[in-house]
Amino acid sequence: GNSVTQMEGPVTLSEEAFLTINCTYTATGYPSLFWYVQYPGEGLQLLLKATKADDKGSNKGFEATYRKETTSFHLEKGSVQVSDSAVYFCALEGGGDKIIFGKGTRLHILP
Amino acid sequence: GAVVSQHPSRVICKSGTSVKIECRSLDFQATTMFWYRQFPKQSLMLMATSNEGSKATYEQGVEKDKFLINHASLTLSTLTVTSAHPEDSSFYICSAVHRVRRETQYFGPGTRLLVL
User: Fold this and answer.
1) Predicted pLDDT of residue B1
2) 3-state DSSP call for residue B87?
């Protein structure tokens, strides 16, 4: 069945460091892929998405590229800020509007 | 825009009682809402799909008589945990699919349930 695996956290970085959060998926076909972010005390928000192979989703300085050959959708940001501290979820569309989530990666950015 | 609220945000109840959690789309209509459950350091697990005016569709392993879902209008879905037990303690999150912009789900802030 469909599933998502992402790196376990927490990830702790200094401000302005480079960020990578790895995500790989298992799916039949080519589902849409997502990154959601959950800031403290708030609901999940869609950060970015990609709907087909080689698509690059981007938002707020974050990027992720849909890699069919490696079944990956790694999240990257060149220079993180304290305000990026949150939990990040990789996810895929499971059909019928359903979304299948990874376990989430907590990110701490130190000033 | 596209805000989803949940009420209550936190609830503590005694074992054997029932708890109702509301999920509302505040500024849009949602024909479909989803209910998720999240354990500490775990992923969101989809419990059921709630469609306005019809019966909810439950995922495998989720007891429909235990978790009653009612989607009475295009802006409100409720989840009732019946005869709650300590193992039902969890974080419950709902999401709503915009009736027009169906490609995006909007999530509520979650409800933390503690059953004593």
Assistant:
1) 67
2) helix
As given in the structure block, the two tokens for residue A45 are 């928000």
Distance from CA of A80 to the nearest CA of B (A): 23
Mutate to test the interface with B, among A44, A46, A92 (most CBs of B within 10 A): A44
Q: Are B22 and B66 in contact (CB under 8 A)?
A: no
Please write the tens of the pLDDT for every residue from A73-87: 999 999 999 999 999
Q: What is the pLDDT of residues B36-94, one digit of tens each?
A: 998 877 778 999 999 888 889 999 999 999 999 998 889 999 999 999 999 999 999 99
Rounded to a whole number of angstroms, the distance from the CA of B44 to the nearest CA of chain A is 6
A58/A72 Cα distance (integer angstroms): 15
Q: How far is CA B76 from CA B25, B26, B64, B96, in A?
A: 7, 9, 19, 9
